[in-house]
Amino acid sequence: MPIIVNLDVMMAKRKISLNELSERVDLTLSNLSILKTGKAKAIRFSTLDAICKALDCQPGDILEYVNDKEKTTNR
């Protein structure tokens, strides 16, 4: 998948646990975990908004586009 989720990186930078983020954004641990591990197929803008507010970041800090061609040539 060409979209990389860097939620774990931002959580580490902000020194916030999955439990704390779950409480702040009012999402279940399992849903946040799915997002954090990159297994999510979609994210609602309202969820992205809540995460960005909680982590004081921009959507681009959490989501990254990687071109499939670049990914295979960089290996």
Q: Rough shape?
A: globular
How are helices and strands ordered from N to C? EHHHHHEH
What is the overall number of helices? 6
Radius of gyration: 13 Å
Q: What portion of residues belong to β-strands?
A: 5-15%
Strand order of the largest sheet: 1-2
Quick tags:
two-stranded antiparallel sheet; mainly alpha; 2 strands; single chain
Short description:
With 75 residues, the protein is mainly α. Helices cover 60% and strands 8% of the residues. The chain starts with a strand and ends with a helix.
Can you give a write-up of this model?
By secondary structure, the chain is mainly alpha-helical. It is 60% helix and 8% strand. It contains six helices and two strands, in the order E-H-H-H-H-H-E-H. It has a two-stranded antiparallel ribbon. The protein starts with a strand and ends with a helix.
Draw up the topology in text:
Layout: E1 3-5, H1 7-14, H2 18-25, H3 29-36, H4 45-55, H5 59-62, E2 63-65, H6 68-73
Antiparallel strand pairs: 1-2
